[in-house]
Design a protein that fits this description.
The radius of gyration is 42 Å and the shape is elongated. It folds into 4 domains: 96 residues, Immunoglobulin-like (Sandwich), CATH 2.60.40; 125 residues, Immunoglobulin-like; 117 residues, Sandwich (Immunoglobulin-like); 109 residues. Helices cover 23% and strands 35% of the residues. Strands 10, 12, 14, 15 and 16 form a 5-stranded antiparallel β-sheet that branches. Strands 22, 24, 25, 26 and 27 form a 5-stranded antiparallel β-sheet that branches. The chain is an alpha+beta fold. The relative contact order is 0.07.
């Protein structure tokens, strides 16, 4: 409470007063002046201003709350603003100005707001240190048709999709654009989040566009979306942020850029359909186009028994990621063996389209001469443009396999004993006495071989008795297994079943130390774990089979994988600790 200080005025007796001058007017003048000064000191004031009173939905506006004084602590309660606005950011600034000998100080709170709805919105009265501001009305309008530039603001954003309805795992193209007709700097965009899906980002684009004679700069960001479950998919809007470019009058040490501009795109709702009931393929592949190509590394007219030849099969899908392409089903007749290599999986982009590539390479080794029949390979897929099921085929072929003349002893193990002479072999008899071979080279060779063998045995004995090497290898193996388990858990948390499947296969290859394990079914067979076999089958069914099958409990699957990892670690530790029965 300011103190009202009145100066003491001495009243002169009537007999001593100066003629013609009255004291009473001076008294009242001093009293009024003192009251005015006290009233001025008391009303420091709190005011609210906006950069504009008319705006559009999803557009930001800047609100300034000014307190005529230095705010020592705290701030006004902005909770009431959240009824009609979203507070994007807030900052505080204190200034002290001396102008023409007059000192002024004030504190500003600068808020960036986004209207939550259209209509007349109210910025309520705010309170700070006993000071109350006036309420403020903001008129918010809906954004009209994008082709009518007369109704559009200087900065606006939009989101478009190439289709509102799609099949599960089918590619959907979503594009977000920011239009601006005023100079802006420091652009940023929040990431796109999906409730249950996979996305691939395309490269950003910047260009200009004339809309009804008005030039706009455009920033464009596009995504390929792959929904992983049927039903409605609600995609939240993204937030563009930028700053107005500072004008010449704003140049200075403390004014490097203008006010903050925020635009939020509209929420998008998509209808995701399940796979068609009449689709009969083993794996669900919704794509615009699917191609199968094969390459043989070698001359198919010069094949011989026991000599390998490499075959590479490439699956290319237009509108799918490489991880979505299921492993090929390849028959293996008894006339040859197949040794598969690790598949190569790639995801490429071409324009606004995703191209998935899966390359499976294998070595074929014929085991008998004659006609070798290579069966055909086919893939059934769903044509997303024609809405039909189609089949792509690599036709089978017949290869002629010749005997391997350079390996006359290439026979089966059960065919004959190597100690039996062939019928056409005749022993060579000679009447000439065999020349006498000196004995000392033979003795010297035996001594050298014995010494070499002893050295090898010593090195092996030291290596087997060294605990440091075993511990190091064990720790390295455990660390790799732990990394694989983390990858599996992260894929489950991110609702990425395709990535989870690939991570489980890599975990199995590390656990078994067998890179030839390429499918979940083969991994379950090698582990001999019936529980994992059931879980793996459900995972494959949900990815590439029917969606109405039994639900997969991912948490139970991860627990079972961890149990299998712990059991394998115990077995390996026990084998490392057991000493040989007859130490060398």
């Amino acid at each position: 409470m300011p103190i009202l200080r009145l100066n003491t005025i001495e009243i002169v007796p009537l007999r001593n007063r100066i003629p013609g001058i009255s004291v009473l007017p001076f008294f009242f003048s001093a009293l009024i002046l003192s009251v005015a000064q006290a009233s001025s000191a008391k009303s420091s004031g709190l005011s609210v201003t906006a950069d504009r009173l008319n705006t559009f939905i999803n557009e930001s506006l800047n609100l300034t709350i000014r307190y005529n004084g230095q705010a020592r602590s705290g701030e006004p309660d902005f909770t009431a603003l959240e009824n009609d606005f979203e507070i994007i950011s807030s900052s505080r600034q204190q200034q002290y100005i001396v102008q023409n000998g007059d000192a002024k100080s004030f504190t500003d709170w600068n808020l960036t707001l986004i209207p939550l709805r259209a209509g007349t919105l109210l910025v309520p009265s705010l309170n700070y240190e006993g000071e109350v501001s006036d309420a403020l009305e903001i008129n918010v309008a809906e954004v009209a048709d994008s082709e009518n530039s007369l109704s559009k603001p200087a900065v606006f954003a939009e989101t478009v999709v190439d289709k509102k309805t799609a099949r599960v795992q089918e590619q959907i193209l979503l594009t977000t654009r920011l239009f601006y007709s005023i100079p802006l700097t420091d652009f940023s965009l929040t990431p796109l989040t999906l409730p249950d899906g996979i996305l691939e980002e395309f490269q950003d684009k910047q260009y200009t566009k004339i809309i009804d004679g008005r030039e706009y700069g455009v920033i464009e960001k596009s995504y390929a979306i792959f929904a992983q479950a049927s039903g409605q998919m609600n995609i939240k809007g993204q937030r563009f942020e930028a700053y107005e470019a500072a004008s010449r009058r704003q140049f200075g040490v403390f004014n490097q850029r203008g006010k903050k501009i925020v635009r939020i795109t509209d929420e998008t709702t998509l209808e995701i359909l399940d796979r068609p009931k009449d689709f009969s393929g083993n794996s669900w592949l919704p794509t615009k186009k699917l191609e199968l190509t094969e390459i043989w590394n070698g001359d198919l007219k010069k094949l011989k028994v026991g000599e390998p030849i490499t075959r590479s099969i490439t699956v290319t899908a237009d509108g799918l990621t490489g991880a979505q392409i299921h492993p090929l089903t390849i028959e293996t007749p008894e006339s040859y063996r197949i040794y598969p290599d690790q598949p190569k999986i790639e995801t490429k982009t071409r324009g606004y389209n995703v191209i998935g590539v899966r390359i499976e390479s294998m070595a074929l080794v014929p085991s008998r001469a004659g006609r070798l029949e290579i069966p055909s390979i086919y893939v059934e897929w769903w044509n997303t443009e024609l809405k039909t099921t189609e089949r792509t085929v690599i036709e089978g072929r017949v290869l002629e396999i010749a005997e391997n003349e350079s390996r006359p002893d290439y026979v089966d193990a059960n065919e004959k004993d190597v100690s039996v002479l062939r019928e056409d072999e005749t022993p060579i008899l000679s009447a000439q006495p065999e020349p006498r071979i000196p004995q000392w080279p033979l003795i010297f060779s035996v001594i050298i071989n014995v010494m070499l063998l002893a050295s090898i045995i010593t090195v092996l004995f030291i290596w087997r008795r060294s605990p440091e090497k075993k511990v190091g290898n064990s720790e390295k193996s455990d660390l790799t297994i732990a990394n694989r388990l983390n990858t599996i858990s992260n894929a489950a948390k991110n609702k990425d079943p395709i990535g989870m499947r690939q991570a489980i296969i890599e975990w199995g290859q590390t656990l078994l130390e067998d890179p030839s394990t390429l499918t979940l079914s083969s991994l379950a067979a090698k582990l001999g774990n019936d529980s994992l076999k059931t879980h793996f089958k459900l995972l494959d069914s949900q990815l590439y089979g029917k969606q109405d099958e039994q639900f997969l409990d991912q948490e139970e699957l991860i627990r079972e994988i961890k149990r299998e990892s712990a059991l394998s670690a115990k077995k390996k530790d026990l084998e490392d600790r057991l000493q040989p029965l007859y130490p060398t």
